[in-house]
Amino acid sequence: EAGVTQFPSHSVIEKGQTVTLRCDPISGHDNLYWYRRVMGKEIKFLLHFVKESKQDESGMPNNRFLAERTGGTYSTLKVQPAELEDSGVYFCASSQGYSRGYGYTFGSGTRLTVV
Amino acid sequence: EDQVTQSPEALRLQEGESSSLNCSYTVSGLRGLFWYRQDPGKGPEFLFTLYSAGEEKEKERLKATLTKKESFLHITAPKPEDSATYLCAVRLLFGNEKLTFGTGTRLTIIP
């Protein structure tokens, strides 16, 4: 079974530019999550999709961040325009369900550096 | 406010020297406590889920335990390949499905 795939693995952009991160969840996983870790801090939740619908976007920092999930498959997270404080590692995770026994599988992350 | 605190921040052990990592939590209701291992440049890798106080789970040299206030990850006779950052996260009883993470413990096993 293929795991959660994220790309690019690294991205360096200038302040004010736009960047789009992509996540391909495990096939058949309806739940897809985005998380972010900034330097020295804990991993923090950004948002949760169930299929193509946003279930919870309470962690999205501001309206410069836009997440989509086309047809309930892969997801993109766009940052426009990027600011210095957006630098960090963005993780995607997917899950089959909520009940006991269902865990979260994480991707390797995208390291975003805004200069 | 729901909070997860891990200690110590970093731990250096000699190979074979057993120890424990701590994860204390203050949450409105717990639906699961997760332990993950993270290697440099990789995403968190699932280790255990604990659901109720008194529960224990084991995998190779690792054993996780849970009380009403904290969880321990015991490492017995560690090897250098156990070096990693160990993350604790909780899923709440009420509300959404997100995980709330601690900052992790960076474990280094010296040969």
Assign the CATH superfamily of chain B.
Immunoglobulins
Radius of gyration of chain B: 14 Å
How many helix segments of chain B?
A: 0
Which architecture of chain A does the CATH hierarchy give at level 2? Sandwich
Overall pLDDT confidence of chain B: 95
Q: Give me the oligomer status.
A: heterodimer
Which structural class best describes the helix and strand composition of chain A? mainly beta
Helix coverage percent of residues of chain A? under 10%
- Unreliable runs of chain A: none
Strand content of chain A: over 45%
Radius of gyration of chain A: 13 Å
CATH class of chain B equals: Mainly Beta
Q: What sequence of helices (H) and strands (E) makes up the elements of chain A? A: EEEEEEEEEEE
User: Biggest β-sheet of chain A, characterized?
Assistant: 7 strands, mixed
Stated plainly, the CATH topology of chain A is called Immunoglobulin-like
Number of strands of chain A: 11
Q: What is the 3D shape of chain A?
A: globular
Would you give an account of this structure?
The complex is a heterodimer of chains A (115) and B (111). Helix content of chain A is 0%, strand content 49%. Chain A has a single domain, classed as Immunoglobulins (Immunoglobulin-like), CATH 2.60.40. In chain A, the strands form two sheets. In chain A, strands 2, 4, 5, 6, 9, 10 and 11 form a seven-stranded mixed β-sheet that branches. By secondary structure, chain A is mainly β. The termini of chain A are far apart. Chain B has 111 residues and is mainly β. Chain B has a single domain, classed as Immunoglobulin-like (Sandwich), CATH 2.60.40. In chain B, the strands form two sheets. In chain B, strands 2, 4, 5, 9, 10 and 11 form a six-stranded mixed β-sheet that branches. In chain B, strand 9 and strand 10 form a beta hairpin. The model of chain B has no long low-confidence stretch (mean pLDDT 95). The interface between A and B is medium-sized, with 27 and 23 residues.
